[in-house]
Amino acid sequence: MNPDSTPPNSITELPTPEPNPNQQVRLKSQGGKLLLLLPAEAEGETGSVPWSELWEQLKHRLASGERFWQPRTPVHLLTRDRLLDARQFQEIADALAEVELHLKRVYTSRRQTALAAVTAGYSVEQHTPVAHLNQSPAEPGKPLEEPLYVEGTVRSGVEIRHGGTVIVIGDVNPGGSVVAEGDILVWGRLRGMAHAGSQGNATGRIYTLHMQPTQLRIADKVARPPETPPDQYLPEVAYIGNDGIRIALASDFSRLLANGPR
Question: 33-50, pLDDT tens digit by residue?
Answer without folding.
Answer: 899 999 887 644 455 788
